[in-house]
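Example record

One chain of 197 residues, shown exactly as stored in the release files.
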Amino acid sequence: MTLVIHVLLKIFDTILSLILRLYKNVSIGSGFRAKGIPLLNAWDGGEIVIGNNVQLNSRNRGYHVSMYSPVKLFAESNNTLIRIGDRTRIHGSCIHAIKRIEIGKNCLIAANCQIMDSSGHELCLENPEDRINSKGKGKAIFIHDNVWLGTGCIIMPGVTIGAGTVVSANSVVIRDLPPGVVAAGNPARVIKEIVHV
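Predicted structure tokens for this chain:
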């Protein structure tokens, strides 16, 4: 019975991957794989560009931690871009852009991460009653090649994460991180430099 379920899921994933190629303002490279049903939204002229051999995993089955929701890629407004590099894997995480979010090649994004280039609303400290009707301004996020985000990371607006960096589970990144380090905490700080042999 397990083999039958596995085969049926593989067929479903193949059909789903073909259907996702029909989405408006979404371009998908060759070798794309979807497990489960991701939420892809490119509104008002926004664009989502997915590279070759990218995997979007929205299925808990076979994944090592609990995934709270499917992958969500949301390019909210005109001239918004979400770009995902070749061979990157994203598991049950939200990437929400009103300006620009770029993720490099060979990145690993574990489940339950939140990557957002806007806080959603302005602070409106002088007139907090206006906050509910405000819309946050975007600051681009750049995640370079070979970055690994552990489960539950939050990447805040305007952040750049350097190539090869590892961000520990449940870290909150509010400032740029250099390449080739391990970072952890809230706010995330460098705890180790990675020595390349």
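Notes: The two ends are 46 Å apart (CA to CA).
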